[in-house]
Amino acid sequence: MGIQRISTLDVVELHPYRTLKRPLEHARLGIFVAEGEKVVRRLLDSGLEVISLLLTPTWLARLQSSGHLQGREELKTFLAEENLLREIVGFNIHQGIMAVARVPAAPALDELPSAHLLLALDGLRISENVGVVVRNCAAFGVDAILVGETSCSPYLRRAVRNSMGAVFKMPVIHVPCLAETVAALQHRFHTRIVTADPHGALTIYDVALTGNVCIVLGNEDTGVSPEVTSLATDRAAIPMRNQTDSLNVGSASAVFLYEADRQRAAARGRY
Q1: Which end is more exposed in the chain, N or C (fewer Cβ atoms within 10 Å of the end residue's Cβ)?
Q2: pLDDT digit string (tens) for 91-125?
C-alpha cells in the first residue's frame, strides 16, 4: 500500500481533513469525508472511489486483518499517532479513522426505474436530519433521493455519519430547482407528488403510494415550500394522538416510507 507516516498535518493531500468545516469547498471538489469505524468500513465495501485514508497504526492493522484493504495496494494511506489526529475536530467521533472519497455520479431522471419510489428534500437545513432520512430511504427501498437547491447535501460529513454509510448505497440527485424537477417528474413520468403536510386533508393511509411516487419532505420549521406544494398531487398528514402536532423530519420520513413500502409490497402480493 502507499503508506506514508506523518508527524504533521501540513501535508497537501491532507487538506480535506483539515477543512472539515468548509462544506462548500468539499462540494466544489466533488469529495466527501467519512469518519468512524463503521462508516469507513462500509465505504471501503461500497465500491465508491476512495481517495485516501487517515488513521492510526491500530486501525490500519485492524483493517488489514479484516480484509478491507485487500486489493487496495495503491490506496494512499496516511498513518499518524493518536495525539496528532486529536488535532482534527471531533476526535471522539472519528476515533482516529477517516477517509476521503469521491462523490459518485448521479443518475439521470431518464434512468429511474419504472414504478419508482423517490424522496425529495425541500429546504432541510440540519445535516444530521438528512443523514437519518437517507438511512430510512435505504431501509425502505427508495430508488433515489432528490436534493433541492435549498437543502443540505447527504454528502456533508455529519449527514454521512448519521446515515451510518447508507448514503453509499443510495442514488442522490442534486437538482438546481426542485419545483422544476417535480414538474418534470409529473409530466414526463406521470409521477404522483405527495408532500408531507401536518395540515393535509388526507392521511398517509388515504393516499396511494404505489406506482411512480415522489414523497417530498420540507424544512424542519416551515415545511414544504409553496412552489413545490402547488404541484402536489396529494398533501398527506401522519395521524397522531395526544395533540401531537408534528414529528421530527427523520421520524416522519420513517413513517411515510414504511407506509409506502407496505402498500407497494401489498400490491406485489407480498402481504
Answers
A1: C
A2: 888 899 999 999 999 999 999 998 999 999 999 99
pTM attached to this predicted model: 0.94
* Length of the chain (residues): 271
Helix (H, G, I), strand (E, B) or coil at 213: strand
Q: Hey, which bits of 90-244 come out as E strands?
A: 97-102, 117-122, 144-147, 172-174, 192-196, 202-203, 213-218, 234-237
β-bridge mates for residue 101, sequence order? 32, 50
User: Whose CA is closest to 182, among 249, 150, 227, 142?
Assistant: 227
Q: How far apart are the two ends of the chain, measured CA to CA in Å? A: 50
Longest C-alpha distance within the chain, in Å? 61
What mean pLDDT do residues 198-223 have? 96
Report residue 246's pLDDT band, with 50, 70 and 90 as the boundaries. Answer: confident
